[in-house]
Every structure is written in structure tokens, then in C-alpha cells.
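U., I forgot to send this yesterday:
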Amino acid sequence: MSETAQCDIGLIGLAVMGQNLVLNMTDHGFRVAVFNRTLSVVDDFVRGAGAGRPIVGTHSIEELVAALKRPRRIMLMVKAGQPVDDFINLLLPHLEAGDIIIDGGNSNYQDTMRRTASLEARGLLYIGTGVSGGEEGARHGPSIMPGGSPAAWPHVKPIFQAIAAKVPEGDPNGAPCCDWVGENGAGHFVKMVHNGIEYGDMQLIAEAYHLMKAGLGLSYDQMHQVFARWNEGKLNSYLIQITRDIMAFRDADGAPLLEKILDSAGQKGTGKWTAIAALDMGIPLTLITEAVLARFLSALKEERIAASAILRGPTEPAQMSPVSIGDLHDALYAAKIISYTQGYMLMRAAAREYGWHLNYGGIALMWRGGCIIRSVFLGRIKEAFDVNPALENLLLDPYFRDEVGAAQVAWRRVVAYAAQSGIPVPAMASALAFYDGYRQGWLPANLIQAQRDYFGAHTYERVDRPRGQTFHTDWTGHGGAATSSAYQA
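Result:
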């Protein structure tokens, strides 16, 4: 080992997240070598925010690798997609067996599976890790969700668990919001589901805001007070907290800044990936999918403005009395339970599909602090899986079953009032439809199967025969006995 090889870890990509992670690592006693494609960024960082810290600025990949202790640990904080592959290819000529590459970006889990297999075939180790919490989390303690080559975990565990958020929050001796998730793409898959749930939470809160504003006519000061109260109870969470603050924020002229923000939401794709994964695996991820679609609809701003002058909503006032703030609270909480229920259903399906060994309670703990969806609520999920690690569905846990049962009258009232008032609540309504569908012992899908068999000879199963046996009927009297090539329930 050369005399310069004294750094514990290398990091490539000195945008805001990368810089803050480096500062966090040095806070905990780790020596970090850094590299950025634009070399002036390296120099500015080392002389500026990194001044006086154990940071080694490097001006080439070769110099970065030479600065690292073996096994070399190199973390990529670059844009997902081709840039990750490009840097891996630049690193390969300089690495040896047992060295570790870590992708800390929002990569697609399938890319991570491909990269893990490719690098392991070369004798290298690979980790794809979700890092959640934004700039603040990266600097002071994010949620970290690593997966990939299991042999790499002992080498990065001390660093990752030191810099991760702790529960209870701020307690240096608390449980770290970081643990090994699983093989190959598991870490990035769990981060993807986290982001999908984030989409759902944000949409649910936005729908509650819409109902308060358009349905109940509350002022921004009043809405600020509502969210402040909600943040002191079972809805306590980072997203409710920042919504409270947003409601109180005023522009330079004293008007609520929120009123001046264009109602067209952006997205970076992870919510869409979550919905696509659910479609591929046959999981009814209705709420998160509706949240993604609601962002797409919001982006049609010019079309919506034109349509608002032509299309009419309800011509009569809602026949029912306006809902209460308590109703909105209960509807939001019940729908939130459904969102996490569906997210956990998707993770369980992926674990079966890819042979991952996911710790579902541990995932809730990883999300309990540091990340965007951090909330008191996640402690309940961890408790549910602590009691029953084989829990098939969160709705079957006594706590969540009872909470949804107690909230459903208010939840139904909110969805009905929104429909009568012409206020869209796609996430709350789809969550209720899922709940009603999941609790049914019988659904009208038998008619769908009859229709499929009628027009396409796709066959059907019978309730009076064992599962797996399929049948076809000549519905018209002039059809044949031939059936479609495959029946899939």
C-alpha cells in the first residue's frame, strides 16, 4: 500500500448530495478522497466547505484509486443511467479483486441487478444503495438502504451506519436508519418503493389541502393551524411538518407564497418505476399509481385552463353537510395506511420474484428517520412485523385493521363529499376502492372471465372444481372446442 493510500472511502460526484455526504463522513472521523469530472469543483470544495477536514482532492480516477485503503470503497453520486456505467468503466482498469463500487444515486433496480452480476463476475463487489433525506439528510443523517453483493456489507457497514440518521432522532446511540436490505437490486428497489410511497403521501396531503381550501374555505392561517395540530398526533411526519411551514410562509408582499406557485407538479421517474414494477408483478398499487397520474394531469396546465371554461361540474351544492377537519384527518390516515400496505405488498412480491430476503420491520426502521417519509407511523409498521415477521398484509395486523375500521365512516364521508362537490381526490378514493375490494370474499371478476372466454376462448376456473382446472364453454352454440394457448389467473 502506498503512503498516500490512507483514505477510508472515495466519492465521485460533488454536487450538493455528494458534498454533504463527504462532510457527514468526515464529521464521523472518516478520511475521504473525492473526484469530480469538472476538476475546479474538487478544488473549490477542498478549499471551501471541506477546508480543514480530512478530505483528499484528486484530479484523476487513477489518483483517486491510489488514495484508498484496500479493499477500495468508491461511492458514485452521479446521475442515474449511463453516467453510472461510464464511471464504472473508467474505474475498472484501476481496481483489484475484492474492491467495492457503491452507487448512491436513484438508479433503476434492474440496472443494479445487471451491474452487480457483471462486477461480481470480474471478482469485484457492488452495492446499489438508496440514500433518502435530501440535502439536510445527506449532511446530518440520511436513511440509507444498501443492497447488492453481501460480501461488501461488512466493509461499508461502519461508515454507512455512522453517518445514517438515528432513532430516536438525534441520539448518537440510537438505532441507525441503515441496514443491509438484500441481494443485487434489493436496496434500490426498496428506495424506489420509498419514493413511490412519498408520491402517495404528498398527493394525499395535497388532496386534504384542496378540500380545506375549496371545500371548507379555510384561510392559509387556518390551514397552517390544522397541519400544526396534525403534526402533534398520529399523522406526525416530516411531510406534514413541512406542509405546516409552507402554509405559513409569506411572499415579499405578505401574500401566501403557495398561492403564487404554479400548479404543475414535476417528477423524476421513481414513482413511475414503482407503478411499472407493480404492473409487471401483478400488484394492485392503486394509490401510488394514482399519485403519479395526478402529477401527469397537473402538468396539462394549458389544457386544464381551456377545459375549465367549457366543462361543467356539479350544478347544485353538495347535498351532504361539509366534512369536518376530523373527517379529513381520519380519511388521510386511513388512506396512508393503504399506501404503505400496497408498498409492502409490492416489496413482498419482488422478494418472491428475485429471491430476496427482506427484513420488513427493518425497512420500516430505516424509514423511521432521515428520509422524506419519516414519521411516527413507521414505528407501528415495525411493531407489526416484530410481532409477526410473516405478516402477509398490513391490513391484517390488529392495529392497522382497527385503525382503518375506526376511520372508514369519516373516510367514506370525505370521498362522497368530494365527489358531490366536484373536488378530485384520486388517491383517497382509489385507496377506499382498494380497501373495499380487498375485504370482499367475492368480486365480479367471474363476469370478466366469462366475457374473455366468450370472445377469446381464454377459459375459466369453476368454484365447484379444484383450483388450476380450466374450462371452456361454447357460448354461442357454433364455436369450437379449441381454447387460447394459456390461462393466467
